[in-house]
Amino acid sequence: AFGSGVVSRLNDFDPDQIQSIEILKGPAAATLYGTEAARGVINIITKRGTPGQARYDFTVKQGGNWFSNPQGRMPVNYWRDPSGTVQSLNIVDRYNQLGENIFRTGRMQSYNASVSGGTAAVRYYIAGNVNRNEGAEDPNYKKQVSGRANVEIAPSEKLKVTASAGYVRGFTALNCEAGCGGAMWGSVFSTPANLPENLCAPTPEYGCDFWGGFRSGPPAADRSLQQSQGVDRFTGSLQVNYQPFSWLTNRLSIGADVTQEDNVEFLPYLTNDTLQYFWGPTLSQGYRYEDRRAVTYDTYDYAATIAFDVNDDLNTATAFGAQYYRKHIETIGVEGDQFAGPGLETVDAAAIKPYTSQDFQDNNTLGYYGQETLSWKNRLFLTAAVRVDNNSAFGADFKWVTYPKASLSWVLTDEPSVSDALPGWLNTLKVRTAYGESGQQPVAFSALRTFTPTTGPGGTPAVTPNAIGNPALGPERGQELEVGFDASVFDERFGLNFTYYHTLTKDGILLRPVAPSLGFATAQYVNAGEILNQGFEARMTAQLLRRRNFSWDMDLSLGTNSAEVKKLAGSDTTIVTGSTQYRIGYAPNAWFRERVVSANYNAATDEVTDILCDDGSGGVTPCYDASGQIAAPRVYLGRTTPAVEGSVGATFVLFERVRLNGLLDFKSGYKKLDNNLRVRCQIFNLCLENMNPGDYDPALLAQIRSNGTLRNFSIRDASFVKLREISLSYLFSDHIAGLLGARSASIDFAARNLFTWTNYTGLDPENTFLSGSPGFLEQSNLPQLTQFVTTFHVSF
Q1: CA nearest neighbour of 222 among 230, 233, 213, 214
Q2: pLDDT in tens, 444-482
Q3: In angstroms, what CA-CA distances link 349 with 104, 354, 460?
Q4: Quick one: which of 417, 446, 414 has its CA closest to 431?
Q5: How far apart are CA 366 and CA 321, in angstroms?
Q6: Which residue in 57, 262, 40 sits closest to 796, CA to CA?
Q7: Cα four-point dihedral sign 573, 578, 580, 582
Q8: β-strands 620-622, 635-638 pairing
């Protein structure tokens, strides 16, 4: 099944306990994170106490989330009954007419309390949170309790010690989805053939009254299967800052992140006759699958900085440090099938135990770095750095890797010889450029040759080849050049940040098939070549209107990306990864499939003939050869990642107390596989094209009837514009807050994921298949839910 691997660990952090989130990428991340940083780094900084009287904060959130307009987004499915009549079914609409709902409005509730304060010598922040959120399907919900304590002690001006500890305990009940049926899967692929009037006439069939059109049985049957994840997570850190001299600073940081997951899939012994019918005689006796996963991250980081003034104009700061990262994962999995009777729940109570597993893996990184920063008159800044890393997942023949970095920035408006020539409406202008390299280590064990245990002749233990390994495997290496500027104009009412980036990923890690003659069935991880990414990122902030009781601000962002595979290993020009490919001259992981361009349909024989495909050179070629095998080449259909994305935000403030915010964001220039469409039309024959083929383009019919081989019709443009959020907040006056004995109070109303403008044929262009497949595939999972949340905050 698709289980609890879909639960994001980012959900463990309470947003009310977060001070800020920093996203580092490119040269900015190179020195500090090296081999961990090729795909960027997210730093979550939790709140700290400030000197002063104790401050008590309480936050209550109440709201709901729901599947917006399901009857308008759920597909209409078709079936031709034995009499030849075509029947249709929009299952959500049918249940609405019966006064029932397949999906619900899930309640969202959260309660947060914190206290902070301190003195110059001791500062503290202590917080706790309780929340329970329900999903749009029963029994999907999440319960979570978390706490955090951050303490900063400064016994002297030279020494400061900061300690942080957080704990999360949570439980998530998941939906039974694509691997086992579920309300969503059963609804998307529902069929009129399973309506009671079609199953029960003329002779009633056992259980048919409960089917109701669902593909997999009614939701009541699916709810008998329990999928869940329990989690216990501890995060802790200790940082010591010691400054023995004014020119020397030392920092030592030690951190630990320990997560215990308990992933369970459990079907009890079923005594209900109806439920037994849907699960069958064997599965209805129940089973339990349990996977326990323990993940530990340890970090050790030492840094020293020597800073002094060379003269009145020149300042220097020399930094050096060492870091050690350790990731340790342990997994234990067991399964037990067929309980002897009701009430039994453990694996030991099952009659059959077909599966046991125990494994662990370690990944360790050791890195050293040095960095020099020069500042000239506090307006010209030059930084140069180098980092060297070694990682345990590198191949035996690959040792240390070096990552250099350099950056230069110049505040032109502070330079007298330049500022005089600049126009008066230009308030500040800083130009900057940077070059840096970072990397991404291989997956643990991917460089090693491995074997799988098996039973040999006569029951003796033996092994068979598994992965061929690659002793020369090293990290992906990203070389990025950035050029940009930051400016403000017209009394700083408008701000503009612009960055052009040029990133060349060398030695990209890809899976390449190996020759069967080598005896290894799996593909090999290789440093396959070079991928170029370039584009720009721009952001403009604008204070469009400033009045005593009214203001209007805008925030606009735009980013572009042009990606191309420049080189692959050896003589390779293409690496195939299913329906996507890495092909020289095209975007990485791009869509490549046969493209049907024409065909003929014979209504008399109900046959599609003369099927022609794009030959990749501007012409056409037969899609099949004489033996019925695919003969046409796969051609480029589009990118899997957006070429353009951005957002538009607006903020209105009235009387300094009322704040109205709105946010639109968009992505374009990419395609997704609408696997709902493919499965409905090609596998279950639920589309109208299956019922009335003569009314449709024969080229489309050729694909639908190809048993999934031809599928370019289901790879669809996923561009969209989404109204992401509208929020309204009100800050109560000091007088009203005083009536509560508080120093401040506010209330906020927020609505999210309100509407999407798109030509995409699926449920949501941002949907991602639950199995963990890449985000360019959608199948039978809930779209993003619409939310409405009210937040009340009070401080004492």
Answers
A1: 214
A2: 888 888 888 888 888 788 888 888 888 888 888 889 999
A3: 35, 13, 29
A4: 414
A5: 11
A6: 57
A7: negative
A8: unpaired
